[in-house]
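@channel anyone free to eyeball this complex?
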Amino acid sequence: MNEQRLGRREFLAGSGLVFVGVVLGQDVTPPAGLVRCAGFPAYARWAYLVDTTKCIGCGNCVRACRAENNVAKKVEEAPESASPAAPADERSALSRYLYTEGHKAENSAEQPTRFRTWVERYVQVETPQGIAVRVDSPEGGEHGYPPIAEKVLQGFFVPKLCNHCAHPSCVKVCPTSATYTSPEGVVLVDDKRCVGCGYCIQACPYGMRHLDRRFGRGVAEKCTWCYHRITKGLKPACVAACPTGARRFGVLADPEDPVTAYIRTNRVYTIRPETGNDPQVRYTQLAREVL
Amino acid sequence: MKHIRHLLVVAVVGLVVAAAAVVVLYALVPAGFGAHPPGWVYRADSLKEHADAPPLAYAAEESCAQKSCHGGENAVTRLNTTLRGGHKDIGCQACHGPAQSHVASDGAKDSPVIWKPETRVGAAEYDKLPKEEQQKIDDARAAFHVGFCMGCHRELAGKPASLPQIASFEKHRKQNGDGSEAGCTSCHSAHKPAM
Amino acid sequence: METQFLFPNEVEKSVVWGLVIVLYPFMTSSIFGGMFVSALPTLFGRKAFAPVARLGLAVGLSFIPFVFLPILLDLGQPARAFNIMATPRFSSPMAVFGFVFTFVAAVIALHAWFIFRKDLAARARERTGIMGLLYRILALGIVEVTPQAERIDHGLARFLKIVALPADALLTGYVAFIFATVPGNPGWNSTLRPVVLLLAGIVNGISFTLLLGMIFRPALLKDETVRALGKYLIAAIGAVAALTILEVVETAYIESYSATVVETLFASGGPLTTMFFTVFLGLGTCVPLAVLACAFALRLRGPLFKLAALAAGACGIAQSFALLWNIIIGGQLVSKSFRGVVAYAPEPREIVLTLGIAAMPVIAFAVINFLVPLVAPHEEEAAPAPQA
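replying in thread with the prediction:
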C-alpha cells in the first residue's frame, strides 16, 4: 500500500481491508477502478506529477492553458468573441525572444494578470550578504524570464497549478456550494451558482483562484485539470504542451500507469502540506523554498 | 384574549414570513442539486457542463501519427512523425500548437504551425514567387525560428544543465557555421536536432 | 530583479476584499455594542445607563438593515445573493452567518417591537393620514394596549433581550470567524479575533450612543450617564488595544515562517504603519484614553465633560475602524507567497460606496428617533405595577 497517498485514517482502514482480504482470500483492490482519497468522501481517479528537474521554463503550458481554457487576461476583460481554439499567444515568438534577450515587454498594458497555471523560477544567488533566493514569475512565465545579473549558484523552475486538494479549504468556505469536489476528486466551480464573494480566493493558500470578470461582475475561476479533456481520456492541455515531460498526468487507479508507478515507487512531495489541505499535485525534488 | 391578541398577530406574521422564505429558498435550489453522492453537494448539471465545455483546443496525442494523416507511407501529407535525438519525447503540439480544429476538420482547417501566419505560404505558391519574395519569406521564417527555438534553448539561470543552451544566437552561428546561414533550421532539423 | 514575489494572480488585484468589506464587521459589531449598552441597565442593573437604554437599542436597530449591504455590493453576482441561503454549505462561516444573522435580526426586531409597541399603538391612535397608517402597520394593526398586555410585553422584551445579547455576541464572533478561519492567511488566523471584535463592538456601541445621542437626543445624556459611558469606554478601548498589541507582539516573538513578511507591514514606511501606529495606537487609543483620563482627573463637569466624552467616542470609532482595517486589509497585504507585500489604496468608487453605506445607519437612527420616543425609559427600568 502506498502510504504517501493515503491519510492515516485511510491507511488504517486499508490495513483492515487487507486483513479482511487476507482472511477471506479476496482481492482488496478498490472497486470500479477508483481509489479513495485520504479521509475524503470522493475518489481520486487521476494523478498529476511535476518533475521540477525537467522544467525549462519555456511557458508552453501557460500559453496552452490560455488557449485551451480561454483564461481571461485582465481583471476587467470584455467577452472574447474569438474562438477559444485560436492560439492565445498573440505576442509573436520573435518578441518573446527579444524579451528573453533582456528587452522589456513591449506593451505593459497587454500583460496578462489572470492565470490557472504559471511557472515560477527559483534562483539561488550569491550576494555580499550571503546566499539569497530570488523568485520570479513575470507574466506567469508566459513570455520568458529576464536574465539575472548576480552570481547564480543554482536554479530551477516550478510549474504551479491547482493542487485539487483532498481537503480543499476553498470548498470548505464556499457559502453557496458553488465550488465542489467532483466524485473523481477534481475541485470545480459551478459558474452558475457562484456569487463571486471571493471567499475561496481568500482561502486558497496557493493563490490559484481568481475572479473571472467576464461573467457579469465576476465568478471564481480556477484550474480544472482540464476536466473536459481528462473525462474524454485526454491529457490536460498543459501536459500535452509540455516539451520536456516536466508535467505528467496519469490514472491513479492503474498501477501500470507510468505516473502512478512513479508515485508508488518514488518519494514525492507536495507544496505546503502544513496547510492541512492535503494537496494532490505531486512534485519531485521540491526545494524547501517553494511555497 | 385581548391581552395576547398582538402575540397571535406577530406569531402569524412571523410564520407567514418564514413560510414565504422557505418557499422562495426552496425554489432557488437548482434541479439535481445534491443528487450526486458522496459527501459534497453540488448542482448535478455543473459536472456535465464542465465535461462538455469548453471546446477542445489541443487534440489527442495519437491523432497526428494516424496512418491516414501524418503517419503511414500513404498518408495525405507524410511528414516526419518520428522524432529522434533530444526531441524524441516531445509531443507534436508542444511545438506545432493546438491541433484540434485541424484534426476535427480532417486537415481542411489550417494546420497548427510554428511559424507566423504571414510566412505561412504553401510549397506550390512559394515556387511561383519571384526570387526576392522567396528570400523575404526565408528570412522571416529563419528569424521566427530563431525566436521560437530560443524560447527553450536560450541560456538562462534556472534551466537544467541537461538542456542545450545558447547564450547568443549570433555568437553560436559564427562559431559553428560560416555565418551565411540565416536560422537554426538551416543546420538543425527540428525533428532530429543533432547536427 | 525584484526582491519581492507575488503570485501572478495577485499582481493586479491582491486585495480582494477592500474598504467596503471593512464596514461589514464594523457594522455587525456596532449592533452588538448598541445592544450591550441597552442591556446594561436592564440586565446588568447598571442604573446609570437607564436614560440611554433606548438609545443603545436604536443604535443596534439602525445598523441591522445595512449589515448585508457591504457584502452584497461587493459580490461578483449580487443577483444570486440568495444562493447563500438556498444551497448553503454549512462548513462555510459565511453561509452560517446568513442564518445566524436572520435569527438575531428577527429577535432584536421583535424585542424592539415589544418595547416600542405601546408608543406605536398610542401614536397610531393619535395620528391620521399616512403617518397614522404607518403606525398602524408598525403596530401590526393592534392599537389598544391593555396594562396586562403591557406587562406581558415587558416580560417578553426582557426575555428576548436575554436571548438577543448572547445571540448577537455569537453573530459578531461569527463574523470574526469568517476571517479567522481562513487557512491561507496567517494575518487572519487568530483565536483572539472574536473577542477583539466583541470589544470593538462595545467601543462602537458606546461611541455611537454618545455621538448619535448628542446629535438627536442631547437631553438623554445626563452627567452621570456620560460619566458611566466614559468609564466603560476607557475599559473597552484599553482592552481592544491590549489584545491587539498582544497579538502583534506574539507574531513578532514566535517568528513563524510568515513573521518576517508580516513585520514588513509595520516597518517604517510599510503599508500598515500609518493605520496601526498613528490611527490605531495614537488617535484611536492614546488620545481617547488621555482625554478621558484628564476629564476624570480634573473632575470636569457638565458640557466640558460631555465634550471630552464625545471626542473620546469619535476616537473610539476611529480605533475600531483602524483595527478592522488592519485586520481585513492588512491580512491581504501579505502575498500568499510570503515573499512580498502589496500596498492598497481604495478606489474613489469604494470610498464613495463606503461613505454612502456608512451614512445609512445614521439616517436609519434619525428615522427611528422620529418614529418612536427614545425618551421614555421608564418601562425598561421596572415593570408597571400590576393593577389590582
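from a first look: Residues 379-388 of chain C have pLDDT under 50 and may be disordered.
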